[in-house]
């Protein structure tokens, strides 16, 4: 997963540079705002994805292969229906998006509509790939999952290189080619899973159970509520920004989202690997191990995010100057605040896996959905009162990182038996002091050196040196040190054998 991350992160950052320079800030902003519309209305895909993966991993933990065949077939039928529904809903929604909601220059409306149509097909193929992703995740087959991810990144690089040299409408071609990629990826995963795993049998007449469909749909419904509110807010923030400040600010937001997404690959990879373990232990009835794994996930999620994000936040102006030829207005501030929000969310976000593993997520989804949607209204009020664009992130940080974080802790305690004292000891205090000390030490070169490559290197080395010393001497317990030592020995032996 981390080998894949290293390759895909480099490619993705380079692709963004190529695409931003080829399209320009305005067209890049249009692609982000139109693509955001697809993402917002693709919430059903995300909801069913979490439901399918939860059920597949749960019964993998119980060792029930026959039940997994039912889950795979029920999931396949559901996702086919969802894909068709999304196509219809998105086509209807497109009328409203292009007649009063989106603020797009008149001469670029046709291009935006072509992109919208292409991305609808892209979304449908992405939805249809969910059952296969769930199977790979349940079997913890991260090698093949990583290979597919690298192939996807290489395809995106190929698309970027094509549009750089294309003489026609680059935005239209970019949208169409990007829509073809999910179809290719879905085909690759389908062929592999049917050859590799016995539960991947498409026979809905034989392996169909109404009770299971009802259970999965109910779980997905509550996941849908929570994810929908989050996606509505994420896309709504872009619309509010677009309404008050225009498409160029959407380009700045797109850069911030791109950077945070790439830097979060480290934590997301770990959570991708840990998620089936947590759900499997829940399926096996071992709640103690489930919580212990979730707390360790939270701590290391913070560490992985801080390790890369804090140096980047400190040196954001210089890094963006190297990466992008033309930095969109407000991009530096947006990047820093976006990274701060994501970093704070890591304190509690991995605990959601444990809450979902136990199955009863009704109350949790209702309360977190309310917390998800509030920043949208706060941001609108701030902009109406004349506050600057970065207040978008101020409201986001308060509601998502602080208020929603408190809700996650409350439900992890009431539903899973989480101990607050254990959370503080194992996650909150180590994470907080690690981040604060990395910031203080990392800022030292800023006060004494001019902006440049030397300062960038020093900031990184000091931050990472502080991180390593804190973990080695203070925050890692004996069992965690033992695991890390075993990991390094395994890597060393692998290289010696090769």
Secondary-structure topology with pairs:
Blueprint: H1 2-41, H2 43-62, H3 65-101, H4 109-128, H5 130-138, H6 142-165, H7 170-196, H8 210-245, H9 247-263, H10 265-283, H11 287-314, H12 316-323, H13 331-345, H14 351-357, H15 362-384, H16 391-416, H17 420-442, H18 444-448, H19 453-475, H20 478-497
Helix pairs in contact: 1-4, 1-6, 1-8, 1-9, 2-3, 2-5, 2-8, 2-10, 3-4, 3-5, 3-8, 4-7, 5-7, 6-7, 8-9, 8-15, 9-13, 10-11, 10-14, 11-13, 11-17, 11-19, 13-16, 14-16, 15-16, 17-19
Q: Beta fraction of the residues?
A: under 5%
Helix content: over 70%
Shape: globular
Estimated radius of gyration:
23 Å
Number of discrete helical segments: 20
Mean pLDDT, to the nearest integer, reads 80
Q: For the terminal residues, how far apart are their CA atoms?
A: 20 Å
Contiguous low-pLDDT stretches (5 residues minimum) are none
Q: Can you summarize the main beta sheet?
A: none
The helix/strand class is mainly alpha
Describe the structure.
There is one protein chain. By secondary structure, this protein is mostly helical. It has 20 helices and no strands. It has a domain of 208 residues. The longest helix is centred in the first third of the chain and has 40 residues. The mean pLDDT is 80.
Labels describing this entry:
single chain; 498 residues; mainly alpha; 20 helices; 86% helix
How is this structure best summarized?
This protein has 20 helices and no strands. The chain is mainly alpha-helical and 498 residues long. The chain crosses the membrane at residues 30-49, 70-98, 110-130, 142-165, 171-189, 300-320, 364-385, 391-412, 427-447, 453-476.
């Amino acid at each position: 997963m981390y080998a894949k991350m290293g390759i895909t992160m480099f490619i993705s950052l380079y692709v963004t540079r190529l695409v931003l320079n080829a399209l320009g800030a305005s067209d890049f902003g249009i692609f982000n705002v139109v693509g955001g519309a697809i993402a917002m209305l693709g919430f059903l895909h995300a909801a069913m994805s979490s439901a399918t993966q939860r059920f597949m991993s749960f019964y993998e933990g119980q060792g029930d292969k026959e039940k997994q065949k039912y889950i795979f077939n029920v999931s396949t039928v559901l996702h086919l229906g969802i894909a068709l529904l999304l196509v219809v809903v998105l086509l209807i929604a497109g009328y409203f998006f292009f007649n009063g909601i989106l603020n797009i220059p008149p001469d670029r409306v046709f291009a935006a509509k072509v992109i919208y149509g292409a991305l609808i097909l892209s979304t449908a193929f992405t939805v249809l790939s969910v059952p296969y992703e769930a199977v790979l995740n349940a079997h913890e087959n991260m090698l093949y999952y990583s290979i597919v991810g690298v192939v996807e990144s290489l395809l995106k690089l190929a698309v970027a290189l094509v549009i750089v040299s294309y003489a026609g409408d680059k935005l239209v071609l970019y949208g169409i080619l990007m829509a073809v990629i999910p179809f290719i990826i879905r085909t690759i995963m389908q062929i592999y899973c049917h050859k590799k795993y016995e539960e991947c049998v498409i026979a809905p007449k034989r392996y169909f159970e109404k009770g299971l469909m009802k259970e999965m749909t109910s779980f997905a419904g509550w996941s849908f509520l929570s994810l929908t509110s989050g996606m509505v807010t994420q896309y709504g923030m872009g619309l509010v920004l677009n309404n008050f400040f225009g498409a160029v600010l959407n380009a700045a937001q797109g850069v911030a989202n791109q950077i945070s997404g790439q830097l979060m690959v480290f934590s997301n990879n770990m959570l991708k690997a840990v998620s089936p373990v947590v759900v499997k232990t829940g399926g096996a009835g071992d709640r103690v191990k489930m919580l212990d794994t979730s707390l360790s996930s939270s701590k290391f999620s913070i560490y992985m995010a801080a390790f890369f994000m804090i140096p980047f936040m400190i040196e954001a102006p210089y890094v963006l100057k190297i990466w992008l030829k033309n930095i969109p207005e407000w991009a530096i501030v947006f990047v820093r605040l976006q990274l701060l929000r994501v970093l704070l969310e890591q304190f509690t976000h991995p605990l959601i896996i444990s809450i979902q593993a136990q199955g009863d997520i009704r109350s949790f989804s209702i309360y977190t959905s309310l917390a998800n949607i509030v920043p949208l209204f706060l941001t609108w009020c701030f902009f109406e009162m004349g506050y600057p664009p970065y207040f978008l992130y101020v409201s986001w940080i308060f509601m998502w990182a602080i208020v929603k974080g408190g809700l996650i802790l409350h439900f992890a305690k009431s539903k899973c038996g989480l101990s607050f004292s254990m959370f503080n000891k194992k996650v909150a205090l180590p994470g907080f002091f690690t981040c604060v000390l990395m910031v203080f030490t990392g800022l030292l070169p800023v006060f004494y050196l001019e902006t440049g490559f030397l300062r960038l290197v020093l900031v990184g080395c000091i931050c990472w040196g502080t991180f390593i010393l804190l973990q080695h001497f203070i925050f890692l317990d004996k069992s965690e040190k033992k695991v890390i030592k075993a990991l390094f020995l395994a890597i060393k032996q692998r290289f010696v054998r090769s």
